[in-house]
Amino acid sequence: MRRSWPRNMWREAYRLWLGAGALALCLTAFPAAAEELQPITTVLHVHSRMSTGTLDLDGLAAEARRFGIGALIMSENLVLRYEYGLFPLRGVIRAVKSWPSVTDFGVERYLAELRAASRRHPDVMFVPGVEVVPHYYWTGSLRTKDLTMHDGQKNLLLIGPDDPAVYRGIPAAGNVGAYTLQRQSVVELVLVMGIGGAGVWVLTAPRTRRARLTHGVLGYRSRRWGRGLALLLIAVLVAINAFPFLQPPFDIYDAGLGVGPHQAVIDYGNAHGGLTIWSMPEAPDLHRVDYGRLGTVTIKTEPYPQLLDQTEGYTAFGAVYAQPVTVTEAGGRWDGLLRAYNEGKRAAPVWGVAEAAFHGTARGKRLAEAETVVWARARSQAAVLEALRLGRAYARRRGEDYALVLETFSVSAPGSDKTAISGGLLRAPGPFLVRLRITASDGVPRSVPVRIIRDGTVIWDEPVQLPADLAVPDEPPADPRRTYYRVMAGGAAYRLASNPIFVQAS
């Protein structure tokens, strides 16, 4: 006989199911409180011989092992090809400069090489990614000898995807896989077919001509070879000029596109599960290149920190690298972005990372000069990407002999068991307690300046003797909105910048 459950037992089972679901949700939302996170030192923005680097993957692994680096986040050049053509036959009369890139190497081959290297070197993860030039444009002319190419180094990094189709579809200058059939393509096809068809008709349709003779008129047929061949030649030139009859996402001769091409890459990366990073927004680029028949051309990229405000949805930006950075200073552009997020003007916070821009060891360049340390759930590529996406990381510039280590950075509420770390949100009644532990990687005691910044304002600024354990109490102004804390330490050669911890008084 079938046995039935009492109603109260079903009710208790339902309550237990709800409780288990709520617990699982809490553990997912606050991983730092539920499991121990491990620090993994990564180097972001690395090139190998597959694009413009001088080391192969095995050489990079050896360098990483020497410095205790656990992951190399690759940023090989997606396409490194610049061209200039003369109107109206830009596809025929043009000059092209190119350097090795993933597109030339082969996207499938690139991803396969990274997977194979990770298997050969289990202590070093190789995370896929590319450096993208969404758009460049030309000003000046050959006639006035002031031809200038702009924004060739206004770059985004797209990291994470492991699908070749994603890279082929990135809407960037020179990435033929992203070209599409547009109205201009149809016009060009019709033009080629019309001119070519007219040429064939002229050649194949004989014309009857009459010659007057002494005793009458002689009729004969002739072909218009000159006109027919001229039409066919024009059709061939138009075809070569328009080939492959697909249009790039953006016109490289249009100087008025603004941030549109870059926002398109950011949106594309988000749609395909990638992380997008503004690369070195305060690094200028100015040099001159011999373009053969075009003479010497100026290549120019102005610093572009304003694009951090003008674009949406990117994951992070280069906050620490070999050149001076001002956007991370207290009350600067980064704080403005974080305040905009807290005020609901931006959908997501913006994180800071360190960029190595490593191409090789020439001129004393070190792989470990700029490092991003992540707090990851596990030692895996997915866990590293998750930590970067959630801001569980800090950026640092390592000197030749040591690096600053942020062993602890948390905010808690006294009398509460709630704690948050970088990238997290603490909801608790104030006041709050900011805890720091900063050491030097070589263990040598030394004095370094440390600043704690709350909502763009420095609330603590003192030199400390390493190793240093700090517990700084703070009660922010009464405000229902979120605020945040972040840390800056060191100087130019030994720099450290944490990602923020958000707090909201409840």
Q: What helical percentage do the residues reach?
A: 25-40%
| CATH class group of the largest domain | Alpha Beta
CATH architecture of the largest domain: Alpha-Beta Barrel
The chain-level mean pLDDT equals 85
The best one-word shape is elongated
Structural class of the secondary structure composition?
Answer: alpha+beta
Cα-based radius of gyration, to the nearest Å = 30 Å
Q: Please give the number of β-strands.
A: 29
Per DSSP, what share of the residues sits in E-state strands of 2 or more residues?
25-35%
For the largest beta-sheet, the strand count, sense and barrel status come to: 11 strands, mixed
Q: Can you offer a commentary on this structure?
A:
- The chain is of the alpha+beta class.
- It folds into three domains: 38-85 and 94-131 and 148-160 and 268-398, TIM Barrel; 183-242, no CATH class; 399-506, Coagulation Factor XIII, Chain A, domain 1.
- 27% of the residues lie in helices and 31% in strands.
- Strands 1, 2, 6, 18, 19, 22, 24, 25, 27, 28 and 29 form an eleven-stranded mixed beta sheet that branches. It has a six-stranded mixed beta sheet with strand order 3-7-10-13-16-17.
- A hairpin with a 2-residue loop joins strand 11 (207-213) and strand 12 (216-222).
- Helix 7 packs antiparallel against helix 8 (225-242).
- It is elongated and about 125 Å long.
- The two termini are 55 Å apart.
- Residues 1-34 have low confidence and may be disordered.
